[in-house]
Amino acid sequence: MIIITLQRAKCIGCNYCVELAPAQFQMSKKDGKAVLLHAVEKKGFHTIKLTDENILEANLKASEVCPAKIISVKQT
Ligand code: SF4
């Protein structure tokens, strides 16, 4: 299981996560911040749980390059 969390309010809209992991991230045309697709929001944290391990590497890269450091990727 891979758990990805985005602390969306702090997003600066740089688009890096979308470039690296387009299957999970898109930019919102409404507010210019990243959207973590199919995520559940709780207290500002948007979370998805995925069983496909193939997406791990791309999302780890997105987490590393995110200048706001608001993407967390955990493997359980
Ligand atoms: S890399 Fe981080 S700051 Fe940049 S758009 Fe994605 S979530 Fe926002």
Give a structural overview.
The protein is of the alpha+beta class. It has a single domain (2-75), classed as 2-Layer Sandwich (Alpha-Beta Plaits), CATH 3.30.70. It is built from two helices and six strands. The strands form two sheets. It has a four-stranded antiparallel β-sheet, covered by helices on one side. Strands 2-3 form a two-stranded antiparallel ribbon. The longest helix is centred in the last third of the chain and has 10 residues, at 56-65. The model has no long low-confidence stretch (mean pLDDT 98). The structure holds iron/sulfur cluster. The site of iron/sulfur cluster has 14 residues, from α1.
Ions, cofactors and other ligands present here are: iron/sulfur cluster
Overall number of strands: 6
The SSE string, one letter per element, is EHEEEEHE
Sum up the overall morphology in one term.
globular
Whole-number radius of gyration? 11 Å
